[in-house]
Amino acid sequence: MKYYPLVFVLTVFLGCGTEENYYTMEDFSKVKKIDTHVHIETERENFMEKARSDNFEIINVSLETKNGWDDVHRKYRYGNIQKKKYPDLVETVTAFSVSDWDDEHWKEKVITWLDSCFQEGALGVKVWKNIGMVSRDTMGKLIMIDDPKFDPIFNYIRDQGKTLMGHLGEPKNCWLPLDSMTTNNDRGYFERHPEYHMYKHPEMPSYEDQIEARDRMLEKNPDLPFVGAHIGSIEWSVDELAKRLDKFPNMSVDLAARMGQIFYQTARDREKVREFFINYQDRILYATDLADHGNSSQEELYQGMDNNWKRDWRFFVTDDEMESDLINTKFIGLKLPASVIDKIFYGNAVRWFGIKK
Ligand SMILES: [Zn+2]
Q: Could you give the C-alpha distances from 132 to 127, 135, 169, 289, 351, in angstroms and in order?
């Protein structure tokens, strides 16, 4: 047997074993991707035509905002219209309303509705921040997500093999004055929506109250797959988020509308953020919160889609120095291995939402 020095053998062995592939900007439209948090609320096809050419599938998400069941039905219907036009590219997540919370038939009504959506192939159910921040029972008490009245609904969703998606609470910035917020998009949003700017409403539940109610709900439902929208409202610290993901194995998070907070943390400690994405590569779903209400020009719409999708691809696959209007400092892309990108941009959506492929 020929003699090879040990160091040489190890170098060849380890070198081959750990060689990573990386994507480039040129791969953007070649790689299959899923945006798991989109709101198309129009019949027009512009959004999905661009999605198709950029190799994006989408999950169109319904929710209850201010108009109870009308919101739920309307938003869900648009998702279904898109799904009929693009059956290979569009999936839906439905929702339910708590506007008739104290109606004695509320539970049956919710389950009948969800059942009809599941029959049509809806992948899951979204609950929104109206729970915890807006919706009240007939006594005037805020409805919180750990209320036992939700238990049979969540058990039903679990038994049907579906996923619960939750936008619960808000970014921590919501409880801070405008000039202390870490991202420009949060500052703009809460300036436009003082009703949701909790810093101005000290009588309302605190950030911690919201997170604790959500965590108690997760404790009660360990077998319910849960996708925490907007980084599970723990967008301000990858360390804190890691603790939650360790504590709740049934929890994953989507990145929708919170890339600013990721950029902000990356500008301060890129290695830590990069390590987080590698360590939790099975628990993070790419998402944007992009919307089409049918009232912008195609040019504007496509500009907005490029601004998000191409910016985020660049951030995750390259180590370019970048700037974004979301924050006021420069930052360096994470350049994650292609195997990690494939999970965050595709595989995790398939797994967490049970998409049949
Ligand atoms: Zn959304």
A: 10, 7, 7, 21, 28
Contacts 24+ apart (CB under 8 A), 328-333: 328/184, 329/264, 329/267, 330/267, 331/263, 331/266, 331/267, 331/270, 332/266, 332/270
Give the separation between CA 270 and CA 262, rounded to whole angstroms: 10
Ligand 1 centroid from CA 258, angstroms: 11
Residue of 307, 208, 327 lying closest to 265 (CA atoms): 327
Contact predicate 251/245, CB 8 Å? yes
Q: How far is the CA of 289 from the centre of ligand 1 (A)?
A: 5
Query: What spacing in Å lies between the alpha carbon of 264 and ligand 1's midpoint?
Result: 21
Q: b vs e for 140-177, b when ≥16 Cβ sit within 10 Å of the residue's Cβ?
A: eebbbbbbeebeebbebbbeeebbbbbbbbbbbbbbbe
For residue 251, the SS3 value is: strand
* pLDDT one-digit tens code per residue, 144-157: 999 999 999 999 99
- For residue 18, pLDDT over 70 is answered with no
| Confidence at residue 2, expressed as pLDDT on a 0 to 100 scale | 46
- Residue 22, exposed/middle/buried by CB under 10 A (0-12, 13-18, 19+)? middle
Please state which of the ranges 16-20, 122-126, 200-204 shows the lowest mean pLDDT. 16-20
> Which residue in 181, 115, 227 sits closest to 326, CA to CA?
181
Closest CA to 169 of 136, 201, 133, 216: 133
Domains of the chain: 24-352 (3.20.20.140)
Task: Say if CB 90 and CB 77 are below 8 A apart.
Answer: no
| Contact (CB, 8 A) for 220 and 248 | no
What pLDDT was estimated at residue 17? 54
Span from the CA of 12 to the centroid of ligand 1 (angstroms): 48
Tell me how far the alpha carbon of residue 38 lies from the centroid of ligand 1, in angstroms: 7
Residue 32 has pLDDT above 80, yes or no: yes
Share of the chain above pLDDT 70, in %: 95
Q: How far apart are CA 22 and CA 130, in angstroms?
A: 41
